Structure formats: C-alpha cells, structure tokens
Amino acid sequence: MKLKLATKINVLVLSIILVFAAVIGVVVNDQITKGIKAFATEKARADLALAHRYIDERFPGDWKATDGELYKGTTLMNDNFDLVDAIGEDTGDTVTIFSGDTRISTNVLIDGERPLGPKPLKK
Known about the structure:
Elements: H1 5-58, E1 63-66, E2 69-72, E3 75-76, H2 81-91, E4 96-99, E5 102-106
Antiparallel strand pairs: 1-2, 2-3, 4-5
C-alpha cells in the first residue's frame, strides 16, 4: 500500500514532534529533579546550622560522651525531648540526636513512643 506524499510528510513531522517532546520532557524532568535535590540539600544545611547555633547558645560548653551519656556542657542530651521538639517545631523537620550510632533523643513518635537506641526504625 502506497502512502500519499502528504501522509508521509505528516507522519515524518509528527514523529519529529514526538521525539522533540520526549527530549524536552526528559530535560525538564532532569532539571526539576536537580532543583528539588539542591533545595532539599540547602534546607538541610541551613536547618543543621540553625540547630547547631540553637544548641550552642542554649547549652554552653563542649560536647562529651561518658558511659553512654552525651553532654553539651553540663546538660545531659539523652532523653532531652524538649530540645528536639523545639528544633523540630522551628524547622518542620524530624530531629534526632545521636551518640555514635545510638539515637539518644528524637522527636519521632511511633505508636506514641520515641524509638531510641541503636535499632533501625521500622518503616
């Protein structure tokens, strides 16, 4: 079956348009993904800096870990839920303080409990 010249041209133009649209879709998707990742990274950096300043101003002194307890100056950070709740409220983030690989304070609640310790969180 022979196609008319006009039909061949229409098919060719449509094919070019579809390829062009697909390429644009891929490029736009890539740029949006990069933008979202950059925004999320910058927000995380800014929130970490805010939390660091907040803790330094509120609790003067050096960090030290002794017998499974983490101190900032003379303040025990283990189970310091007021601190993580305040930072989480100000930033809108999930906040967890670790000592090594052990969660010692968090604003995360699972079934009304704060999951502390080295065990991984259940998803």
